[in-house]
Amino acid sequence: MANKIKKIGILTSGGDGPGMNAAIRSVARYAFHFGLEVAGIMRGFQGLLEDDIVPMNHRSVSNIINKGGTILKTARSKDFATDEGKKKAAEILHRNAIDALVVVGGDGSYKGASRLYELHGVPTIGLPGTIDNDLNGTDETIGCATAINTALESIDKIRDTAQSMERIFVVEVMGNKSGYIAMEVALAAGAEDVIIPERTFDYEAMHDEAREGNEKGKVSWIIIVAEGAAKAQTVAENITKAVGLETRYVVLGHVQRGGTPSGQDRILATRLGAAAVDLLLNGHYGKAVGVLQDKINVIDLKNATRRVHEDMDRRYELLKILT
Ligand code: F6P
Predict the structure, then answer these.
(1) From ligand 1's centre to the CA of 51, what distance in Å?
(2) Among the atoms of ligand 1, which is closest to the Cα of residue 227?
(3) Nearest CA to ligand 1 atom 13
(4) How far is CA 30 from CA 57, 69, 87, in A?
């Protein structure tokens, strides 16, 4: 049977992440290799609803593999979240002769893409594009490795001042409802403690540890807080109240989303972009593509949302042993 996909639309949606451009490049150039057309949809599902669609060619994706952000721009669309929005999106795709859609995004984008397939039969593939690493079916999401490195660069600098001025620093990192980034940077930074949504945290034990450590001459601490677990400011203020030690807090925020994608993210994005096109060419729709144990892995989009990492207790135990 002849392949029915002639033109692929690609969009990036939700929070941007380093490596999204590498994914766009891979989807586009791999599709061109098979003689397909590619349309770039601007500003995610919002741009789709506004018919903001540009034709792409080989050169549209030149010199972007090393760039952070996304050349297609991105948004979180309230309009697309409604059933009416999805119906309109399907109509606009049809009007533009776009036969299939590749969505690079996170949890919310996957949910939207999955419904678009279920409700209107739009052949859709999801690529895991989020710094949070909170999607099923893949060991890592595109952007996460870079975000961890970016956070670490700052935390290493914070440690210099923490040691010099003999202070406790509480550093808040992103991750939405997941504590993955927080746990990874805590391990890699050699932090004294980490507060994540996946574990109940014993604040009193931490205060006691800081008090006792201080009595024995320990003068600086780095405590990592996942944004989904607590506010760094509150944690810092409570330490000062309970222990009496000078404490500062830093919210790393959106700096973690920017910057040059790491080699790991570029490679992941490049492999996944091609795999998305392969799926469409082989008639597999409504799927999320990832890499598990170094192999391309495909699951239903509807099962790909909301991953909860196991092994957090063991990682925490390790962190405490090593610090
Ligand atoms: O999902 C990516 C992410 O950066 C989360 O870690 C964070 O909670 C959220 O997006 C922030 O979203 P916004 O850029 O809309 O403030």
Answers:
(1) 25
(2) 8
(3) 15
(4) 11, 21, 29
Edge-to-edge strand ranges of the sheet holding 221-226: 193-195, 221-226, 168-173, 247-251
Q: Letter for the amino acid at 243?
A: V
pLDDT recorded at residue 97: 98
Catalytic (active site) residue 132 = yes
| Atom of ligand 1 minimally distant from the CA of 176 | 8
Specify the residue with its C-alpha closest to ligand 1, atom 8: 176
Instruction: Outline where DSSP puts E strands in the chain.
Output: 7-12, 37-41, 53-56, 100-105, 124-128, 168-173, 193-195, 221-226, 247-251, 287-292, 295-300
Among the CATH numbers 3.40.1160.10, 3.40.50.460, 3.30.1130.10, 3.50.50.60, which is that of 144-258?
3.40.50.460
Mean pLDDT (10-residue bins), the chain, 323 residues: 84 98 98 98 98 98 98 97 97 98 97 97 98 98 98 98 96 98 98 97 97 94 98 98 96 98 98 98 98 98 92 97 95
Task: Just give the CATH number of 7-143+261-303.
Answer: 3.40.50.450
* Ligand 1 atom 1: residue of nearest CA: 15
Q: Is 171 in the pocket of ligand 1 (CB under 6 A)?
A: no
Task: Check pocket membership of 228 for ligand 1, CB cut-off 6 A.
Answer: no
Report yes or no: 176 and 305 within 8 Å, Cβ to Cβ. no
Return all residues near 61 (Cβ < 8 A) that are at least 6 apart.
Answer: 21, 24, 25, 28, 29, 71
**Where in the chain are the domains?**
7-143+261-303, 144-258
Catalytic residue among 16, 132, 193, 265: 132
Span from the CA of 255 to the centroid of ligand 1 (angstroms): 11
**Spatial separation of the C-alpha atoms in residues 91 and 122, rounded to whole Å:** 10
